[in-house]
Amino acid sequence: MTAVAVRTRLVLIHPLTVRLTHWMTALAIFIMVGSGWRIYDWDPIFDWLWFPFAYTLGGDPKLSQATHNEEGLAGALQWHFAGMWLLGFSFVIYVVYGLLSGHFRRHLLPLRLRAVVRDLGAALTGRLDHEVGQRNAVQKLLYFGVIALILLMLLTGLAIWKPVQLYSLTWLFGGYPVARVIHFLGMAAIVGFVIVHGTLVVLVPKVLPPMITGRARIKETTP
User: Fold this and answer.
1) pLDDT average, residue stretch 151-155
2) Contact 215, 10 (CB under 8 A)
3) Is 201 or 82 the better-scoring residue by pLDDT?
4) Alpha carbons 142 and 197: distance in angstroms, whole number
5) Global confidence as pTM
6) Residue 62 to residue 71: CA distance in whole angstroms
7) In terms of pLDDT, which residue wins out, 100 or 58?
8) Torsion of CA 202, 205, 210, 216, to 10 degrees
9) What are phi and psi of 10, to 5 degrees?
10) DSSP, residue by residue, 79-107
11) Domains, the chain, ordered by start
């Protein structure tokens, strides 16, 4: 019978660039969703949907009404544009870093349909293990999906912000009304991802410290 020694080693899990862009993106999403809900309330897409002011970002509605004769739209637009530039800045840095450093190749590839189906089935039945520093096929797919979703949000946001100057981009999304609906649905998808992501962090709290410090202790077994 062979004896096995178990030891832990402190390793770098998340490089500084990944950590910085992660938290910058999180802040930008918080700003853009909160301000976007206030902007939406000013001109709703769906008559049955309205967001309470308490959950929106744009300043005090009563003060804004008294000074600007509107319920925080100007403040919400300023917050939204600030969040847009922050999101775009962090997105470009992350994508460029991921491509040039090999981060995408090492951590998000390969991605195969069979592995996604296998890991999704394991996750739905509670049999999917999660190790710090390792990404299963479902997580890889979600990361690629979020990257594509953020790009879609940036492009549709530009299309509805400058529909005349960026006419071709607005036309590509089916015109201003359609681009606005796509932008709203993209926001809903991002909110859904944040809820799922936050829930998983609560269920597996050991994944949070490495996203702050960058390092985690990994168990190793040797004969």
Assistant:
1) 96
2) yes
3) 82
4) 10
5) 0.86
6) 7
7) 100
8) -160
9) -85, 120
10) HHHHHHHHHHHHHHHHHHHHHHHSHHHHH
11) 5-222 (1.20.950.20)
Structure tokens given for 164:
């005349």
Tell me the one-letter amino acid at 23. W
Amino acid in the structure at residue 113: L
Cα–Cα distance measured from residue 94 to residue 207, given in angstroms and rounded to the nearest whole number: 20
Q: Is the peptide bond before 110 cis (omega within 30 degrees of 0)?
A: yes
Q: Which tens digits make up the pLDDT trace of 11-64? A: 888 899 999 999 999 999 999 999 999 999 988 999 899 999 888 988 777 777
Token pair listed for 5: 């020694």
Specify which residues 217 forms β-bridges with.
10
pLDDT of residue 115: 80
Q: Which two tokens stand for residue 21?
A: 């862009």
Letter string b/e over residues 120-140, b meaning 16 or more CB atoms within 10 A of that residue's CB:
eeebeeeebeeebeebbbbbb
How many Cα neighbours within 13 Å face the side chain of 101? 15
> Element (H or E) spanning 146, and its range?
helix 137-161
Dihedral over alpha carbons 184, 189, 192, 193 (to 10 degrees): -140
Q: Which residues, 6+ apart, have CB-to-CB distance to 196 below 8 Å?
A: none
Least Cα distance to 49 among 203, 199, 181, 179 occurs for 181
